[in-house]
Request: fold
Amino acid sequence: MRTVRRVLWVLVVLALAGFGWLLLTRTGQGTREDAAGRPVPREVAIDISELGGSFALTDQEGRRVSEKDVEGRPHAVFFGFTSCPDVCPTTLFALSQLLPQLGTDADRLKVQFVSVDPERDSVEQLKTYMSSFDPRILALTGSREEIDTMVANYKAYARKVPTESGYTMDHTAVVYLMGPDGRFAGTLDLHETAEVQLGKLRRLVARPPA
Reply:
């Protein structure tokens, strides 16, 4: 069964590479109504060859981080914010459970949690928040312009949604997987089993250096 799954995954990857695009369903990035009037997530076609790029942000230790820090290494990018009630902590907890299972290979994988709420997510706030998760995960913040650049690089989505107590953030909820060559390699999704996610990460870190 595992062999069949691997073959199917390879075929999917080859198909995506051949077409040069990916149809991502972004949870929390706006909805449309179905025939019954029920809200469903919008689907947006994305050219995967354009994902990634240069950026300059600051991590939870106050260090400046750029694309040079992940050059030649597999990396994962997740957009969220520390006031997120469910998706963000759940995803970060899942990643914190998966990384130790990669063994020493986990040290080659760069995981970046990019805040889409820099007005509230200061370096100090990120440091406190990330103390609950695997220390290998870098939390990044910056100016609104710097964050918007990173979001645009990944064709992601983030916007403020007013609430009675202030606002929350609507944002792309998948984890982007990027190969050592800086090219898009797939995604992790909360709806997948831990086994499937672990398999994806193992294949990612097994890729040869760029």
